[in-house]
Amino acid sequence: MKKVFLLSILMLMTAAVTKAQDSSLGGTTPPPPDNTNPFFVEWKTPFGVPPFDKITNQHFLPAFEKGMQAHTDEIKGITANPQPATFENTMVALDNSGKLLEKVSSVFFGLNGANTNTEMQDIAKKLSPLLSKHSDDINLNPILFNRIKAVYDNRLATQYDPDQLRLIEETYKNFIRGGAALDSAGKARLRELNMQISLLQLNFGQNLLAETNSYKLVIEKKEDLAGLPADLVSAAAETANADSTTKGKWVFTLQNPSIMPFLQFADKRELREKIFSAYLGRCNNNNSKDNKTIISKLVSLRYQKAKLMGFDSFAAFALDDRMAKTPAAVYSLLNQVWTPALEMAKNERDGMQKLIKKNGGNFELQSWDWRYYAEKVRKANFNLDEETVKPYFKLENVREGIFYVAKKLYGITFTQVNEAPVYCKGVTLYACHDKDGSLLGVVYMDFHPRAGKRGGAWCGSYRSQSYKDGKRVPPVMTIVMNFTAPTGGKPALLTADEVRTFFHEFGHNLAGLFRDVRYQGIGGVPRDFVELPSQINEHWAFEPEVLKVYAKHYLTGEVIPQLLIDKIIRSGKYGQGFKTTEYLAASFLDMDYHTSPEVVNTVDVVKFETGSMKKIGLIAQIPPRYRSTYFQHSMTGGYTAGYYSYIWAEVLDADAFQAFKERGNIFDQETAARFRKDILEKGGSKDAMEMYRDFRGRDPSINPLLENRGLK
Question: Looking at the domain assignment, is residue 490 inside a domain?
Fold first, then answer.
């Protein structure tokens, strides 16, 4: 039962709490009466978006309580049905169940990731064990499973449409993966494991949020700002002035828009070391926010769960439901890319070491030096630096460029909606219409960091696409990012990486907007396929034709010069050794945690990570993109044994973009129409590799990926 099974996944990916406390739903604030709770009435808002202006924290607990009870009653209605199990009275009834719970969950967990507060985190603490139990109560219901199995066993004797057959098979498979076939002792153990795993994952995420937000590098002397761009200095002054204890100084944080340019431009080496050490040391400080014990327990419990389910490792269990299928297939891909990437990274290191020596430096390049000297090499070799490019990447212009690409490819348009409620100042809503004028859906855009927002960037939904009474219900999508904010009277000017991230998340958004499936249970795609729509969209970001549309100087309106475009293209492959190596190192680390049998015992996290990196020969100057104690992708449930998915999907996206290039037109309409029809609209209604073959006419090749990264 994919929809309910994924509820817990969504919770674990977005919630950030410390530990489970009272398992009751009671709170200090008395619950509002039903007739004032926005979740219990139809939303009369533009496009049916959540009434954020009316929803308060006190509404969530009663809505969850009522949603779980209603869902339980709906399941009882299925299991108490005296008629033999059929597709309609079992599969469809199950697929249609839990609407209220889904409604409140989408809003709560969306906000808990994007705009959380202490009270929401407390609510999440109370919800974690309850939602885990609720999900297990359904997945482990023997009567319900027997009805599902009856339909599944007779599936070939009945003429079903392809999507009906897919729903039957996926539902049965997900119940098996949810423990339905275990004996009573196994089911009891699985409940215990699921409960503990969910709590540890929540604890990990909250610790990371707290540690990231708590650190400040306070600079008092102006000379210590040497090398830093004026807008970064201005932003640091604004941050400092927001706190009376640092007023008149400069404050840099561990948020990416602050720390990454600091590492890239700050001349003072000891300050780069100081802030980067704090970044690498998050949740590894032997204090109340330390994550090492959590990781040790978590990977052990996951291993125990996998063994209970009949698998040799948690990675084997997780991958059985993905394109890769086996850990061996993942390691094979990682190793193919690792060798040339590491060689390129070593060459980059050696080039920077020569520059250090040339400039009179008498020290060995360290991790906190890498971005600083990479920027200097880029400027020396390509006469290009980021501060020259940023003025052409005004946030609003980049957004219009993204809209341009979407319209040029698919004929769709985006219009800002001003009258709809939003959950935070600065968040905007856009309506997306197809070329025939029909509504595809709406999307919220939330761009800049704040204390209540977790790090990174993601795309989600407040309402997934569905069907009701035979009509398509458009989705309510959301894109959440942590981009450089406007400062010092300047608009938000993005880095090249931020531009790429915007295109990436918008690709996820397109998949959500275009999705057109009849049943919720076949709406999702495998983790290692989900990045295809996002990563292929990145390919258009720096195409010369596209740059000339959106890359305009924020002061003069001048279109980016061809000379600068040429520099961007020529320098495109520089730094790929570092980027590929740090990413792959984290992917190896994630896989090692979830394939090694030694994790069943207490694991020394620092020693394990060191051994994992030594095994692949990672050079000292490059830490893995995520070290264990802040590896949220792996440890909070979203990409567990799945961080490899980005490179797996890159094989697909690089090969898929090649289909456009083979036609001699990156906006080829026929190719775009096939990509939409065969990939974006399909959701999980077909096997992922079948969908790719439908689009491409063959299996993907790894060669375009290697060429794009300069590894071949």
Answer: yes
Nearest CA to 267 out of 361, 127, 191, 399 is that of 361
**Could you give phi then psi for residue 481, rounded to 5 degrees?**
-140, 175
Q: Which two tokens stand for residue 12?
A: 């674990």
* Token pair listed for 286: 């032997």
pLDDT single digits (tens) 597-609? 999 999 999 999 9
> Quick one: tokens of 304?
């125990």
Per the structure block, which two tokens stand in for 405?
Answer: 């690409």
Please state the rounded mean pLDDT for residues 279-293.
98
pTM of this prediction exceeds 0.85? yes
Same-domain pairing of 171 and 238: no
Asked whether residue 580 is assigned to any structural domain, the reply reads no
| Residue 496: burial class (beta carbons within 10 Å; 0-12, 13-18, 19+) | middle
- End position of a domain, from candidates 244, 261, 280: 280
pLDDT tens-digit profile of 20-33? 223 333 344 555 66
Indicate if 22 and 158 belong to the same structural domain. yes
- Of the candidates 530, 538, 506, 520, the one whose C-alpha atom is nearest the C-alpha of residue 679 is 530
Q: How far is CA 497 from CA 235, 384, 393, 483, in A?
A: 19, 15, 11, 10
The packing angle between helices 2-14 and 184-214, to 10°, is 30
Q: What is the dihedral of CA 52, 105, 502, 228, to 10 degrees?
A: 80
Residue 530 neighbours by CB under 8 Å, 6+ apart: 508, 511, 524, 645, 649
Active-site residue set: 505
Q: Which domain holds residue 248?
A: 215-280
The answer to whether residues 450 and 115 touch, using CB atoms and an 8 Å cutoff, is: yes
